[in-house]
TrEMBL record:
This protein's record includes keyword Lipoprotein: no
Keyword Ion transport: no
Keywords on record: 2Fe-2S, Dioxygenase, Iron, Iron-sulfur, Metal-binding, Oxidoreductase
Stated name of the protein: Aromatic ring-hydroxylating dioxygenase subunit alpha
PANTHER family noted in UniProt: 3-KETOSTEROID-9-ALPHA-MONOOXYGENASE, OXYGENASE COMPONENT, IRON-SULFUR DOMAIN CONTAINING PROTEIN
Domain Rieske, first and last residues per copy: 31-133
Length: 367
């Protein structure tokens, strides 16, 4: 079962053949967001999902939110359709009651202990307006830190949430953001700009690339100026490096940060790509975008709708591309990508090394 994938499976990969990257599942031994906090109201339950596995999020009348398998142990009816009473969730069918540990505390029509069966519980935490679960080995949960989530809570920044669903494997999303050489795709939104690669860093669990952007012609869109700073067409002259864009995958999360020429952080994006189905060929992204407030903060408030529309249009162009990549993978029967950019090649190695080959994974034929 996917949820029971172990570290030993990953460790064995060094001794096994290489696998198609799109058949490498996420390692479940990390904290994954599955819902926004505001979606799970006090005294209510909410249905979520991780890699095809149903999860019920329950916010009791007092105390923190908790997560259970979204199936009653009796007739497998979703617990998320049940009734929250005090600190327990009651199945909507026969009223079996489960506590935050998944123990059945009441079978109302039998009125004796030890009759009902438990359901699985997941370690559960809240941070930055997100609800995280730990879908892997619960014994590891306390030793794995929750990720930093942009600049949520920092009054010097304004933050927006986004959570699109995509019909593609999560690895396509990591590759798309890491590789800033695809700006031609966004020419209608951003005009004529080019990315300049400034260098990279890498380690056992991370890969980072740094870029600057130069305008080659045309007027700069207002929303782009809010993100990348004010750039002008220098009519063929080399544009100086004024902002540095750093994209980093620290498995399994991804960030994009922009620092100005003084080294100040002016934009901070954090995102996590959560697998939806058991085959992990669909993804629920959870993202937080924080933008540094200018001296006159109301200016950012006024421009916020424009910025939202701009980032949405950029993302929709990326969505179409990654879903076309997934479609090609299906039609061709595997990953036929010919990667030449060293940073993305290193990223692919990171994702393969840190993930877990699924049951359908077949060794890649070399040569």
């Amino acid at each position: 079962m996917l949820m029971e994938a172990s570290k030993s499976q990953k460790d064995d990969q060094d001794r096994k053949p290489e696998y198609d990257l799109r058949q490498i599942d996420c390692d479940p031994d990390f904290w994954y967001p599955v819902a926004w906090s505001h979606k799970v109201r006090r005294g209510k339950a909410f249905a979520a999902r991780y890699a095809g596995y149903p999860v019920a999020l329950i916010r009791p009348e007092s105390g923190p939110v908790y997560a259970l398998e979204d199936r009653c142990a009796h007739r497998q009816v979703p617990l998320s359709k049940g009734v929250v009473e005090k600190n327990c969730i009651k199945c909507c069918y026969h009223g079996w009651s489960f506590d935050s540990d998944g123990q059945c505390v009441t079978v109302p029509y039998l009125n004796r202990e030890g009759v009902g069966r438990p359901v699985r519980s997941f370690p559960c935490r809240e941070k930055g307006g997100l609800i995280f679960i730990f879908p892997g080995d619960p014994a590891l949960a306390d030793s794995v830190p929750l990720p930093g989530v942009a600049q949520v809570g920092n009054p010097d920044y304004k933050t927006r949430q986004f959570s699109p669903r995509l019909k593609c494997h999560y690895t396509f999303m990591h590759e798309n953001l890491m590789d800033m050489n695809h700006q031609f795709l966004h020419r209608r939104q951003m005009g004529s700009i080019t990315a300049r690669f400034l260098g990279q860093d890498k380690g056992e669990n991370f890969q980072e690339a740094r870029y600057s952007f130069a305008r080659k012609g045309g007027e700069q869109p207002l929303a782009e100026a809010l993100i990348f700073g004010r750039h002008k067409d220098l009519q063929g002259r080399e544009q100086p490096v004024e902002e540095v864009v750093s994209i980093r995958t620290t498995y399994p999360y991804q960030t994009l940060q922009i620092h100005d020429k003084d080294g100040d952080l002016i934009m901070d994006l954090w995102t996590c790509y959560v697998p939806l189905g058991a085959d992990q060929q669909g993804t629920q992204a959870f993202g937080l975008l924080s933008v540094k407030k200018p001296k006159w903060g109301f200016l950012l408030d006024l421009a916020w709708p424009v910025l939202g529309l701009f980032t949405h249009r950029i993302f929709e162009e990326d969505r179409e591309i990654v879903e076309l990549e997934q479609k090609a993978w299906r039609e061709l029967g595997g990953d036929r990508n010919i990667e030449v950019f060293p940073t993305v090649k290193a990223l692919r190695g990171l994702l393969a090394r840190c993930g877990v080959p699924n049951k359908m994974a077949k060794p890649v034929q070399k040569g």
